[in-house]
Amino acid sequence: MRWKDGAVTRTLAIVAAVILALLGAILLILMLNVTGLPLCDDRAALRTADECIEATSGERTLGLVLGWAGTVCAVLAVFFAIRLARRGTGAGRVATTAALTPVLGLLAVAFLPVSF
């Protein structure tokens, strides 16, 4: 039995799509959770919240921007991976967006330390 041209690439694209979808879901849940948290310096908001973000306002903004960009990158990477599996073209787009997703996600987590 002979493999069809590009069968391995298309199979890896499907595996990458599943992994990136899970990573995107984790980033989405993290961003939805962190978006509503107050800063630890805000004493009035801490009376009603159990968790807070130990960062400045600028760090929080930068972390949220990086996190949401990572989430969008994950969605695009899944879309490009599915497109690669169907058509067999666009491996560079998958590689670029797949590489950016964890980098942006880790930078977002670094800028958003949450205190319980």
Oligomeric nature of the chains: single chain
Apparent shape? elongated
Radius of gyration: 18 Å
Count the beta strands. Answer: 2
Order of helices and strands: HHEHHE
**Average pLDDT score:** 87
Biggest β-sheet strands, sense, barrel: 2 strands, antiparallel
Binned strand content: under 5%
Q: Helix fraction?
A: over 70%
Classify the secondary structure makeup into a structural class.
mainly alpha
Low-confidence spans: pLDDT under 50, at least 5 residues? none
Distance between the termini: 58 Å
Question: What's the arrangement of strands in the largest beta sheet?
Answer: 1-2
Number of helices: 4
How would you explain this protein's 3D organization?
With 116 residues, the protein is mostly helical. The protein is 73% helix and 3% strand. The chain contains 4 helices and 2 strands. The protein has a two-stranded antiparallel sheet. Helix 1 (7-35) runs antiparallel to helix 3. The longest helix has 31 residues, at 57-87. The radius of gyration is 18 Å and the shape is elongated.
